[in-house]
Amino acid sequence: MTEVVTAEAHAIIGGYHADPFRYLGPHVDHGQPIVRVYLPGARQVRVRYPEGQEAELKRIHDAGLFSGPVPSNGRDYRLLATWGKSEAIALDDPYRFGPVFSDLDLYLMGEGTHLQIYDRLGAHPMVHEGVQGVAFGVFAPNARRVSVVGDFNFWDGRRHAMRVRGNGFWEIFIPDAKPGDKYKYEIVGPHTSAPLLKADPYAFSAEVRPLTASVIVDPASLPQITPGPAGINRHDAPISIYEVHLGSWRRNPYLNNSWLTYRELAEQLPQYVADMGFTHVELLPIAEHPFDASWGYQPTGLYAPTSRFGTPHDFACMIDAFHKHGVGVILDWVPGHFPDDAHGLAQFDGTALYEHANAMQGRHLDWNTLIYNFGRREVANFLVANALFWMDRYKIDGLRVDAVASMLYLDYSRPEGGWIPNKYGGRENLEAIDLLRRFNTEVFGRFPNATTMAEESTAWPMVSRPADSGGLGFGFKWNMGWMHDTLRYMAKDPIYRKHHHGDVTFGMLYAFFENFVLPLSHDEVVHGKGSIFGRMPGDRWQKFANLRAYYTFMYGHPGKKLLFMGGEFAQEREWTHDHSLDWHLLEYKEHAGIQSLVRDLNRLYKTLPALHQLDAEPGGFEWLVVDDADNSVFAWLRRGRDPGSVCLVAVNFTPAPRENYRLRVPFGGGWREVFNSDAEIYGGGNIGNGGRIQAEDTDHGAVLSLVLPPLAGVVLVPEA
């Protein structure tokens, strides 16, 4: 007897059934084992069991709905389906498989504490119940129906509608899917029948823009990555960071100015960073993003290294190459906001799921992007797990968190009356604070060799202090105040610098409130600011001399170092994301001299413990000359942990050489000049102190009489 086409069957055919597993697949109806199958357009369907038993299913609807009694109530069967005049095709019925999520998975995901949720949600090749295929999982609690569509099912949302479990977690195992297939989720929201087509929030790869589909990746096939050097992120370690935008570091002039691939970068960039003496590379955001000109700061795929430069396998090989060269890798991470592209997270299940529904909380006015709802536990889980994912899967050594200030303040860049206070009536974003503390706690707890860095542009206290002590828990904070003050000072004509002496000294008043990084980042060479070199005053010789003096001052100052690519050889024009750096400038001795200077400063910084061991401790610094505004001279001592670990840094920020410049030092004997930015090899005039200077014993202690070259800095160490 032919089965009646019920309302439930019509819901399957119409593509709006919320739980197709309740109707499709193997069931027992009035004590009789039956199988129901929906294969749109199919002409005939048979069920075959391993023992050789077969049963033909009756078509109960012309759309392709089949049903009928079968000789077994087991799940171990295959389908033989015929379309048109073609021969029968053998395939597995996705609705015969049991769930993939365990009860523990559902509990942790619902609680928002599944820190390896990326091993459950997303697309995962696996053997399930003895069959090879791909398990898919997605969070869409307000959807009425969710389907996987892709290369394996003609992008037809009727074929693989998912089952919903727990608090809106949808899953399905698809036997015919495989690594390399493209896919999306087709979602019917609560308020409309028109489906949304969404990329997978947990996808490990995506198509190259402007295409937007997710791509199935087998994580087990990724190459093993060499771990980063031990201790590389310690507070007492030398940390000198080379910040890089992968798409414009170098390009291939022989292939229409195309990007270098991850593999090509792996052959060139790690060797260059290591040769220059940098300890770390920091990559501008590499998570998948649709818009090149966002530089990655508007990501749509937080779990996918951008496919612009290759596959996840290629990306892993590049990270491995950095580690083999002894270079740590820091990723720029963007947990504060995301773009509203239709294929992305915006209105993901037809409602404001990842973002706030109220624009006064959910829309970023500066960037016209959407702000995560940090207080939703599943969203917080998505972000915290993502941070851990990069360290787990790709052995990343640290994360620099973008735009932390925009997360901390509810009124950030908003007009009066255009924001919603917290529950206490204040402007602090309590949910974001909790998220950041949790993020840092989990990172340092699970990956103690890693670190985190905050780009935080306000005076928020204790950013780099432990979360359990009331801080935000970051390993380091970018010192934006130091950067702004010193760049403003350096832009002045030297004749006026004596009136702005405090721009240099002010930073020492708060230098040890946080664990600081001194950043000369990409933000300082865009949007009409020109290059760092371009801000230096004077004629061409003075510009180069000023830059050499500034870099010497930076490397002698307490705090870890960061330099954006191009700054190491005095790139003259403003950075643009769609062109290579001007490597041809190295044909000129002035630019090659700056490159040599940065290389030697990195090596000096690493080899002298006094320059890095106590970067974040007051005992590592002592002013020797702080008030000589008329001569624009500064001198100080840096100290390491060993009492004998001392060096002296002196900088003359005027074009007049200072002969017999006397300053008191803590002990007598000989001192040796180990660095001079005016050296001829760097493009200077070679004015200096020679190899050795003898301190003079006076009634007021030991005194050195130095030669301070024009617009230059020198570093001296006491001889044993």
TrEMBL record:
Catalyzes the formation of the alpha-1,6-glucosidic linkages in glycogen by scission of a 1,4-alpha-linked oligosaccharide from growing alpha-1,4-glucan chains and the subsequent attachment of the oligosaccharide to the alpha-1,6 position. One of its GO terms (molecular function) is 1,4-alpha-glucan branching enzyme activity. Pfam families: Alpha-amylase, Alpha-amylase_C, CBM_48, GlgB_N. The keyword Transferase applies. This is 1,4-alpha-glucan branching enzyme GlgB. The keyword DNA damage does not apply. Pathway: Glycan biosynthesis; glycogen biosynthesis. It catalyses: Transfers a segment of a (1->4)-alpha-D-glucan chain to a primary hydroxy group in a similar glucan chain. The active site is at residues 402, 455. It comes from the Bacteria. NCBIfam families: branching_enzym, PRK05402.1, PRK12313.1. Keywords: Carbohydrate metabolism, Glycogen biosynthesis, Glycogen metabolism, Glycosyltransferase, Transferase. Its EC number is 2.4.1.18. Monomer.
